[in-house]
Design brief:
This protein is 88% helix and 0% strand. By secondary structure, it is mainly α. The longest helix has 33 residues.
């Protein structure tokens, strides 16, 4: 009885230790991507068009970049979506299968790396659509935003 209780407690502690940062990061990511309005990057694009004076052509190019990014990252998003459940299921089937659980975590890390690399490439492409003046203005807006965020915390 004690051994089972300790095993279950250990698994729950492991799940909490790993899951809490992932859930927090996911919520932060979803909030930042949604812009607090549930519209994703397009909400930011509409605001950027106004604040940076983006032309319709620039907006079209950036929308195309975002669409390509969405398509590129579909497989990684799918893999990341159900990945932690795989770790839990692996350990529930065999609590000693650390190697199997680690392999799933490694796959998750690789999927996240690919997703972030694709995001970095898309950001570079989108910034190349902007004029130098628009990039300077964007830099100022980002600095102001970070200043406001730092004052809140």
């Amino acid at each position: 009885m004690k051994r089972t209780t300790l095993t279950v407690t250990g698994i729950l502690a492991l799940v909490a230790l790993v899951a809490v940062p992932l859930v927090y990061a996911g919520q932060r990511h979803m909030h930042s991507m949604a812009g607090g309005m549930g519209m994703g990057p397009l909400a930011h694009l509409q605001k950027a068009q106004q604040e940076l004076g983006l032309s319709d052509q620039q907006v079209s190019e950036i929308k195309a970049i975002l669409a390509d990014l969405h398509t590129q990252n579909a497989a990684q998003r799918e893999q990341l979506h159900g990945g932690f459940q795989g770790v839990i299921n692996t350990l529930l089937k065999n609590p000693n299968d650390i190697a199997g659980a680690q392999a799933i975590i490694d796959q998750q890390a690789e999927a996240e790396r690919v997703l972030k690399t694709n995001l970095l490439t898309a950001a570079s492409k989108a910034l190349n659509v902007l004029t130098p003046e628009q990039r300077d203005k964007l830099g100022q807006l980002i600095a102001e935003h970070h200043g406001r965020m730092n004052r809140q915390f």
